[in-house]
Amino acid sequence: MYVINARNVCAALPAGVALLRERGVEEETARGKALVLPCPVTTMIQQPAERVLFSAKRDANPAFHLFEAVWMLAGRNDVAPLNLFIRDFGQRFGEPDGTMHGAYGHRWRVALGIDQLDEVVARLRREPSTRQAVLQMWHAPMDLLGVWRDIPCNTHIYLRVREGKLDLTVCCRSNDVIWGAYGANAVHFSVLQEYLAARIGLDMGILYQISNNFHGYLNTMDKVGEDHRYLDDPEIKPQPMFTHPDYIDEDIGEFMENFDQGTVYPTFNNPWFNETLVPLVRSYQFYRAEGADQAMIVAAVMKATDWRTAVTEWYERRVK
After folding, report:
1. CA-CA distance, 257 to 264, in Å (whole number)?
2. What is the pLDDT along the chain (320 residues), one digit of tens a residue?
């Protein structure tokens, strides 16, 4: 097994690609030629809240990554909201009934008969030393039978409390380093980690990603660039998301309800929603309706400087 120990996702991405170039074996896959490592890889991200990719080469869509993370926490599986950010998302990943079969959040909160997030929060509050706080995404009766456009790549999550911090270990059966491991997954699971840590009353610890099949498609391997702004620019830093833990689920529910209905957002209990999430989403709606120039004006009020910087630069690249 290989181990990548990185401060944040910005450091993990180039390290993962370099490891693939050095040790990967070229294989033909259903999606084209890929470099694949011959054994699993564990990535340790020491500062998981530093979750934003700034690399212009990678050109990650910040609005999509963050909105999808909140959509997951809401327990949703309807693809319609995600079509705002990727126009053909439902066509590519949704089933004919408009749902996403492998939606992680729906499995955390609805599909398997219990709200797994509530249960692990209660267990870890009651017994911080437990080794039984496990979240399940892969469900054999649902995933080994039938043919689906999307089934979970990430299969289960282990939670552990160490030195007053919550570590999260996510296991992945098949991990594309460019789009998955250090793109969407790093945002989704670090947001989940911050959500659970806040509700339990802990700080965030280390985010571990165990990738059984660690690969990168040859036609995407150049989509990586070095970026050290979390270290080099003191103005670039995360904003705590959930400062009033007892009201997180209430705020998530209200946010999604207002998004669905297109109504004015209320004042949320957790300021991050009004200060960062709402202007980010509104800026993207302006981007779709009126273009990037208007979107950048709306995005300028975002308090989280990392997300504000990344989405503004993303809009600027669309203008150019």
Report:
1. 10
2. 999 999 999 999 999 999 999 999 999 988 889 999 999 999 999 999 999 999 999 999 999 999 999 999 999 999 999 999 999 998 999 999 999 999 999 999 999 999 999 999 999 999 999 999 999 999 999 999 989 999 999 999 999 999 999 999 999 999 999 999 999 999 999 999 999 999 999 999 999 999 999 999 999 999 888 899 999 999 999 999 999 999 999 999 999 999 999 999 999 999 999 999 999 999 999 999 999 999 999 999 999 999 999 999 999 999 98
Quick one: which H or E segment has residue 292? Answer: helix 292-299
Phi, psi of 91 (to 5 degrees): -65, -35
Give the fold, CATH level 3, of 2-219. Answer: Thymidylate Synthase; Chain A (3.30.572)
The domains of the chain are located at: 2-219
- What is the β-pairing status of strands 41-45 and 2-6? parallel
Q: Which of these, 20, 35, 43, 12, lies nearest to 207 by C-alpha position?
A: 43
Predicted TM-score of the model (pTM): 0.97
Using DSSP's 3-state secondary structure scheme, residue 230 falls into helix
Active site residues: 153
81 by DSSP, 3-state: which? helix
Q: How far apart are CA 92 and CA 86, in angstroms?
A: 10
